[in-house]
Amino acid sequence: MSNGVVANGASVGQTHTTSQRYLSTRGEDSGLSFEEVVLKGLATDGGLYIPEAIPSADNWESWKDLPFTDLAFNIISLFISPSEIPSEDLKDIINRSYATFRAEEVTPLVNLQGDIHLLELFHGPTFAFKDVALQFLGNLFEYFLVRKNKGRTGRDRYHLTVVGATSGDTGSAAIYGLRGKKDVSVFMLHPKGRVSPVQEQQMTTVLDANVHNLAVTGNFDNCQDIVKALFADPEINSTHKLGAVNSINWARILAQTVYYFHAYFSLLRQQPSTFKLGDKVRFAVPSGNFGDILAGYFAFRMGLPVDKLVIATNENDILDRFFKTGRYEKKPTYGPNAEGGLEQDGVKAHEDGVKETLSPAMDILVSSNFERLLWFLAYQFASSAGMDDEWNKKQAGQEVSSWLSDLKNKGGFGPVYKDVLEAARKNFESERVSDQETLDTIKSIYKEVGYVLDPHSAVGVEAARRTQKRALAEEGAAKHIISLSTAHPAKFAGAVELALEEEPGFNFQEKVLPPEFIGLDKKEKRVSDVANDWKAVREVVRQQVEEEFKVFGY
Ligand SMILES: *Cc1c(COP(=O)(O)O)cnc(C)c1O
């Protein structure tokens, strides 16, 4: 199979056997292999890794009837040299990653209403979309570590200690991705008593020896600070190899590109009279750290016919403000959150400005993965000067570094050049959805079609509805739109019950609760209480890794 590698639209005629290399968005780190970027996560210069060239999926149309795992292999293998992971091994990693999903199609598409379709991404082990990426990432980690450790039987083994903080949503997906994996331990810190009961149970009932739940006396910010302190600590770094599984890991984005293609092909099968191969489709994506929707951008750049990617934010709306103003700022100077703004919705705001909403997995101040899109925008802008590719890349890295430095030191940057903003708007639209609108959407969709949305998915559906309305007014006809459903409603029972409690005949237990959640509260738990003190946590990490080694006999 030959696939031209496209560097921003210009085919340079390489083939798929050419080694795929990665560079940092801040320009100071390049030439890395896939394995290096997966194990490192964050680049040495503080940037995020992106492929040096986005491969084009030249024969994507011939993939239309493939099952999910075969499609995943075709897409993912374009980004990994077979010399790094032989095809048979990659196939095996992919097959094992998606065998844990309850739905045969892995990510099924359902028609919600008219031309709005829902891509259900919550059929993995923890009932949230992050499973799609983390099941794959866990197996990749294990594959690389086992390979590094060939011939080593004792303490000389390369052992990864993954440390992360969670407010509840991502912790369980990371734990399920890494449970039972060889040569990797996972420590997940959560604020004691401050995550929802279901989320707490999902995490602490995993009893594998390599899974360590730490309940911190404090809040989520304290947990994050402890993790940061550990990563910055020379002492633990001299004895343990710390790893992260947060959404900046390139492998997570890569795994997520697959379901954009898969959804497109599902739509072809489901709407044969109104949707043909080559027709453009829209996607609406409930967004926080911009990882999910960025995968859609990569799918588009690889050749999938995407009309627009609609960013759906909650009241933490930095992305929506960027698309409206060209300014990327932590503290809003535009919109309902701006000083003097009209909105009084009772939503609790943290000291740093993050609001606590009904869709907590999207409660962010800045979107870490947006940096990757910024690089491509800066690169495109630099390319218009007509210099060589090396110069363009250098320019892009410098531009991104300067933007991100302003974000850190001045709280924001922009407005960006008009051409940059226009280029962004060519592929993206944005919508901001309030908590009240989220509840209204859950309610109205339930009333109209009987489907129960989780609050994150509801943010996406509301954005999709607005997009369709606007398209109808402006273009006279709306295209099909696929709204990504990122969590099962049972994970966010509070918001769902709040929205539907007054609906006649609605019964959460019967309508929503999956059998896997029943009796979870009675299962055995394993969790250690720790003080809000990073040195105490460091001691617990050391001890528990040590005990784990004993279990494995080294
Ligand atoms: C993480 C998450 C999101 C946001 O995805 P990003 O990649 O951070 O934009 C949306 N919904 C749910 C349920 C999530 O867990």
Automatic annotation (TrEMBL):
Function: Catalyzes the gamma-elimination of phosphate from L-phosphohomoserine and the beta-addition of water to produce L-threonine.
NCBIfam families cross-referenced by the UniProt entry: thrC
Recorded GO MF terms: pyridoxal phosphate binding; threonine synthase activity
Residues where N6-(pyridoxal phosphate)lysine is found: 130
Pathway terms, separated by semicolons: Amino-acid biosynthesis; L-threonine biosynthesis; L-threonine from L-aspartate: step 5/5
Ranges where the Threonine synthase N-terminal domain occurs: 21-98
GO biological process: threonine biosynthetic process
One Pfam entry name: Thr_synth_N
Family (UniProt): Belongs to the threonine synthase family.
Protein name: Threonine synthase
Species name: Apiosordaria backusii
Biased composition (Polar residues): 1-23
Residue span of region Disordered: 1-27
